[in-house]
Amino acid sequence: MKKKQMLQPAMFRMNICMIIISGINKIVCIGTIVSGLLACNPAFSQDVFFLRDGKVISDSSFRIESGNKRRSIRIGSSSSDSVFLPLPVKVINIASIENVYGLMLETEDKYYIYLGNLNKIFVQRGQRILNGKVVGQVLFDSSFHLNLLDISIKKDDKDLDPDEILNYLRFIK
Fold it and tell me: InterPro entries annotated for this entry (predicted)?
């Protein structure tokens, strides 16, 4: 088994507002990323779906849900702001606050994918989406000079940790 590589933290902290939705028809909370350090780890630099030319830049983002911290990952792209889906899903919920959107999506195998930090959405609640379809656009973060997307995934009421999220993304790729 390979020894896990250590993350080399960057010199700054992320403090970006993120919207999170949970449950079938309700917004549970709106939270902020806390203590997220930019991950400069080659193991996380592979191309990732959802953003073209997207790279995982952090595995230490948090979303706040019912008072508990939940792990998520952050994907950044300098070349694309369009969010597209690598697999067919159903849109379960859409939430917004001050023109920042979050999507809750359900896969055929009952994974729930939460996408946060979108500034435009092109889907509706209840809509079935085919893989490859653009569902929205993410916000540009001028401090990182990147378009940033936050991703969290649940299965059987359990949050996947960042390694499990990456394994799932590799599997569907």
Answer: Dup_hybrid_motif (IPR011055)
- In a domain? residue 124: yes
Task: Give me the CATH number covering residue 76.
Answer: 2.70.70.10
For residue 88, what are the domain limits?
9-172
What's the pLDDT score for residue 83? 84
In a domain, 151, yes or no: yes
* Number of other CB atoms surrounding residue 118 within 10 Å: 24
Give tens-digit pLDDT for 118-173: 889 999 999 999 887 889 888 887 777 888 888 888 999 888 888 888 777 776 65
Residue 4 maps to a domain: no
| CA–CA gap between residue 136 and residue 159 (Å, rounded) | 24
Instruction: Quote the radius of gyration of the chain (alpha carbons, Å).
Output: 15
Q: Is residue 64 part of a domain?
A: yes
pLDDT in tens, 92-122: 999 888 888 999 999 999 999 998 888 899 9
Residue with tokens 């193991």: 43
**Helices (DSSP H) in the chain: which residue ranges?**
162-172
Q: Indicate the number of domains in the chain.
A: 1
DSSP state of 70: E
Residue with tokens 């990147």: 146
Q: Which residues pair with 133 in a beta bridge?
A: none
